[in-house]
Fold this sequence. Notes:
mainly alpha; single chain; globular; two-stranded antiparallel sheet; 8 helices
Amino acid sequence: xxxxxxxxxxxxxxxxxxxxxxxxxxxxxxxxxxxxxxxxxxxxxxxxxxxxxxxxxxxxxxxxxxxxxxxxxxxxxxxxxxxxxxxxxxxxxxxxxxxxxxxxxxxxxxxxxxxxxxxxxxxxxxxxxxxxxxxxxxxxxxxxxxxxxxxxxxxxxxxxxxxxx
Length: 165
């Protein structure tokens, strides 16, 4: 029951951070009331399935599946311009998180990585944690990646809400 409440409260806090144009506030509940490694796990799938990860890119109808970063193979960008902008973004630079995502992907291996980034009922967060324990993967890396992705997605949502016609 506490987990359900924490998730609802976290969602409410996230909504308030969007309304108040303060994406950093959304992390308060995420850090204190939820399992950051679980949210990190969810963020992998979200980033894999999402569109362009450049925070200042407005959605383009012509881009169905954006290209993946060739290094981490998770983050997607609609073109080279967006990828370059995201690489050196002042708040959430891809340059800082890319090697950590790549390390996580390599340590998990192709099979576990594919299952972690694609929603399937036969691979749960519990399964993911077991794989991480077996391969001696530090969950702090997942937490860091998840926090970065959550902040990036919140910032992107605020930017798009403000700038879309």
